[in-house]
Amino acid sequence: MPHCIIEFSSSLDISPALLVEAVHHGVMESTLFEPSHIKTRALAYEHFRLAEDYNDFIHVTIRLHHGRTTQQKQQLTKLVLRQLEKLSLKSTTITLETVDIDTESYAKAVIA
Known about the structure:
Low-confidence stretches: none
Number of strands: 4
Oligomer: single chain
Order of helices and strands: EHEEHE
Strand content: 25-35%
Distance between the termini: 19 Å
Strand order of the largest sheet: 2-1-3-4
C-alpha cells in the first residue's frame, strides 16, 4: 500500500508515464512504504472544466491504510508535489490528497 491515482487533463502536454514516475518517485522518497507495495496509475480526462486561469490539471489521490500521522501525510504530499513541480508544466493546477482506506472492508486477491 499505497494506491496512487493520478487524474489529469488529456490535453496536458506531458507523457502519462512521466506523471506516473514523478508520483511514484515522490512516494518512494517518503520512505513510509516498502517500494514493492507502492502502486501508481494514471487516468486522463477528456472532458473537464477549470477556472479560467488554467488550461490543465493534475490531481493525485493517495489511498492509504490507517496508521499514518497527519505530519507523515503532509510530508508525503509535499514530496510528491515537489516531484510534479519539477516537470515542465504551464498553465496547470496541481492538487493532492491522502485518503484513509476503510481497512475493515478492504479486500485483495492476487491471481497468478
